[in-house]
Design a protein that fits this description.
Shape: globular
Number of helices: 8
Radius of gyration: 18 Å
Distance between the termini: 47 Å
Number of strands: 7
Helix content: 40-55%
Length: 255
């Protein structure tokens, strides 16, 4: 039997990138996956890519900043699959914005999407997770929560907030629901590629700081999430796993 056989997993922001990679790994391990995604144009390609691997998947257009939209997504999940066992809070946006350009509005937008949305999703899923025999929540933060670079605006603050929220939830939802987080480093996604002027040059520069000498793939994050959602992590709650190829332990590139 696969480790997540017949478990129902909601993954937010799962139309592409890290979210789709997480859904793919969870599905390969036996889970039925719900892609809670705002961008309706991603429905067909996302579902086709998963169903080509015989993964049972459902796409639900969802605005995670809107509690009513989140509640409707959870209701659709229950009506289709009958429960919720795993919630993966993955939605997040990045704005490269110097602090001098930061406004109250842009700060609030980052916080609403990256952090407050997770509260909406947990509140909507909690009653159903309490009925599960294997409930788990995994929040996606970032190594930017620990150290960052110039011009990241409110992004690091939002990701640091996710760590605090994870720890708080781990205590408040114990003993039945486990809550952990994964902090990705440099992951090769469509979004990341669009944010840099020269992908090859950016890749070469990043590799100087990554001991594993490769950037991550979305499935690298998916594997960490799948572990934390599985029974193998039954005695693990309130922790953050950094999936960054060792980048966060290197002081500087000595070359």
């Amino acid at each position: 039997m696969k480790p997540l056989e017949n478990r129902i997993a909601i993954v937010t922001g799962a139309g592409t990138g890290i979210g789709l990679g997480i859904a793919r790994v969870l599905g390969a391990r036996g889970a039925k996956v719900v892609l809670a995604e705002l961008d309706e144009t991603l429905r067909e390609t996302a579902l086709e890519s998963l169903k080509a691997e015989n993964i049972d998947a459902l796409f639900v257009q969802t605005d995670v900043t809107d509690p009513a939209s989140v509640a409707a997504m959870v209701e659709h999940t229950i009506a289709t699959f009958g429960g919720v066992d795993i919630l993966v809070n993955n939605v997040g946006i990045t704005y490269r914005q110097p602090f001098s350009d930061l406004t109250a509005e842009s700060f609030s937008k980052i916080m609403d999407i990256n952090l407050t949305s997770m509260v909406h999703c947990v509140l909507a899923c909690q009653p159903h997770l309490l009925k599960s025999d294997h409930p788990a929540i995994v929040n996606i933060t970032s190594v930017n929560a620990y150290s960052t670079i110039k011009g990241m605006g409110a992004y690091p603050a939002s990701k640091a907030g996710i760590i605090g929220l994870t720890q708080s939830l781990a205590l408040d939802l114990a003993p039945h629901i486990r809550v952990n987080a994964v902090a990705p480093g440099v992951i090769l996604t469509e979004t990341w590629s669009k944010q840099v002027a020269d992908v090859d040059a950016a890749m070469s520069n990043r590799l100087r700081y990554i001991p594993r000498k490769r950037v991550g793939e979305p499935e690298d994050i998916g594997k960490a999430v799948a572990f934390l959602a599985s029974d193998d992590a039954d005695f693990i709650t309130g922790i953050v796993i950094r999936v960054d190829g060792g980048m966060s332990v290197q002081l500087y590139a000595d070359d």
